[in-house]
Amino acid sequence: xxxxxxxxxxxxxxxxxxxxxxxxxxxxxxxxxxxxxxxxxxxxxxxxxxxxxxxxxxxxxxxxxxxxxxxxxxxxxxxx
Length: 80
Prior knowledge:
Layout: H1 13-26, H2 31-46, H3 75-79
């Protein structure tokens, strides 16, 4: 099973403060570990009796329709 290598998110100052508090309370060194823990615990709270298996999500992006006509013919048009 493949893993998502990177997820970029914009957060509020309140979120940043709460994340740092969680890290301090749980003695977590990295923000990414704290976010993974928080998401895992949130999902478990929503449905404690069920184990979630996100493997079914793999490849979903490949099912999106492909844009047949390109909006830009080349890189120069894209950035002009």
